[in-house]
Design a protein that fits this description.
By secondary structure, this protein is an alpha/beta fold. 43% of the residues lie in helices and 17% in strands. The chain contains 19 helices and 13 strands. It has helices at 5-13, 31-42, 58-62, 67-78, 97-109, 122-126, 147-154, 156-164, 173-189, 193-202, 206-223, 232-240, 242-246, 264-277, 309-315, 328-331, 336-350, 389-398, 428-434, and strands at 21-24, 45-50, 86-91, 115-118, 138-141, 280-286, 297-306, 355-359, 363-371, 374-380, 403-407, 412-414, 417-421. The strands form three sheets. The chain has a six-stranded mixed sheet with strand order 8-9-10-11-13-12. It is globular and about 65 Å long.
Length: 435
């Protein structure tokens, strides 16, 4: 499957000065596939090592800091003569922190040697206090497949139409209706590669359900890897509360929805574990839309969204039959699933987690995104009712150069308000540049 991140991997390969690359991302988003794709298509050869499948590999790094000796051992065990034309792939590297630390020695002593590594809980390890090769590695993050990445497999003509769109104009009705139907399918399946493969192979939503459930169970299995066993139950409780958190009109995270009497200090570590594992996104309240956004975070108020819309839909027990029930997919749970989808799209494009803004109990803007030196307010409407007191109030107070609304309305730009159809959220950055 084509992934947009492939272009960034090629750019990394072609850099005149290149550091070892760490590919971050949650379990099963396609990291191993992409690393092997790079080795197969852009290098003479590659050597693949998985520390989870072959624990004996750890010994080479635990007992040795000599990069030459390490490479000799890796060559012997892989049967590949490793040189500067060989891509070294270190998978599940979080299982061997010494291997992660060794990247600084490779960067210093053999800078021409291409090394790429990944791990499903790498974000957790990087925050654990382990000695890390600061300044000696590069990072890329892989997320679930976006609707834009999935669309060519379902409707090639519509995908080509969107990709060649160069100015802001209404989408013809024929394309609009086809795109809307394909988008509804995506809300059911989500973007996890295994789920998309299952749907493409069997062409039924039922084929996706067991795959999604197995993914959810595999994530819960990872919770047991927390070093403090007493936190495992708390991580599970926070994760299981996601649908009920998102179903609220005010989606600010409420600890009482985890269990009666729950307090913030009891669950802070559990929430951060989920954030670092890539399974949830934490959207913090912004007290003032200033530059940089991060300087105005209110850490006491936040929302939690899931990694993938398909997983959230499955956890919410919403049947795939909703596909045939008009716009129910968009309005169910007060539009929470559509908000989750928009957030996924924004993070994949702008490589940062947006914030949200409120004005007491009178207004709330769903997302604020910093694009260069501008703060863009964005609101999500899950149907054709697009009246927005909150966005209007924000405009009156801060007068932003651009406001964005996602809805079922057609593509349109008027008086500083850009309306983007829900199925075009992945094109937000390009549409902004076309203004």
């Amino acid at each position: 499957m084509y992934r947009i991140l492939q272009g960034k991997l090629i750019n990394w390969k072609d850099k005149p000065v290149r550091l070892p690359l760490i590919l971050q991302g949650a379990r099963q988003v396609g990291k191993t596939y992409l690393m092997k794709w790079l080795g197969e298509n852009h290098y003479e050869k590659y050597a693949y090592f998985n520390f989870d499948e072959r624990p004996e590999l750890k010994e080479f790094f635990q007992k040795n800091k000599d990069t030459k000796r390490i490479l000799e051992s890796l060559s012997l065990i892989s049967g590949v003569v490793i040189d500067t034309q060989t891509l070294i792939i270190l998978d599940e590297i979080q299982e061997c922190p010494e291997a992660l630390n060794s990247l600084k020695y490779f960067a210093e002593r053999i800078p021409d040697l291409p090394i790429i590594c990944a791990g499903s809980l790498l974000g957790v390890l990087l925050q654990s206090g382990f000695s890390f090769p600061v300044g000696k590695v590069e990072f890329l993050t892989l997320y679930p497949m976006t609707f834009r990445e999935v669309l060519p497999y379902w409707d090639e003509k519509s995908a080509k139409f969107l990709n060649q769109l160069s100015r802001i104009e209404s989408i013809p009705e024929l394309f609009y209706n086809d795109l809307l139907n394909q988008f509804k399918k995506y809300i059911i399946t989500g973007g996890m590669p295994a789920v998309i493969n299952a749907f493409n192979q069997f062409q039924t939503f039922e084929a996706c359900e067991s795959v999604l459930q197995n993914l959810i169970l595999s994530y819960k299995g990872d919770f047991a890897k927390h070093p403090v066993m007493s936190y495992v139950a708390k991580i599970t409780q926070v994760f299981d509360s996601l649908p009920s958190q998102l179903a609220r009109e005010n989606k600010k995270f409420v600890y009482q929805l985890i269990r009666t009497g729950a307090r913030a200090r009891e669950y802070e570590d559990a929430i951060q574990w989920l954030v670092r594992s890539g399974l949830v996104h934490q959207v913090k309240l912004c007290i003032k839309p200033g530059i940089p956004l991060s300087a105005y975070d209110d850490n006491s108020a936040f929302k939690l969204y899931g990694l993938d819309i398909g997983i959230i839909r499955r956890m919410s027990r919403l049947s795939p039959m909703a596909f045939a029930e008009g716009n129910r997919l968009f309005t169910e749970f007060k539009g929470a699933m559509i908000e989750n989808y928009i957030l996924q799209s924004l993070i994949a494009q702008f490589e940062d987690v947006p914030r949200y803004w409120t004005s007491g109990y009178t207004a709330e803007v769903d997302f604020l995104v910093q694009i260069e030196n501008e703060i863009i307010p964005m609101e999500v409407k899950s149907d054709e009712n697009v009246k927005s007191r909150s966005l209007t109030m924000y405009h009156q107070k801060f007068n932003p150069p651009l406001r964005i609304r996602y809805s079922l309305k057609n593509l349109n730009f008027q008086d500083g308000l850009l309306n983007i159809p829900l199925f075009m959220a992945d094109y937000t950055n390009e549409i902004i540049n076309a203004i």
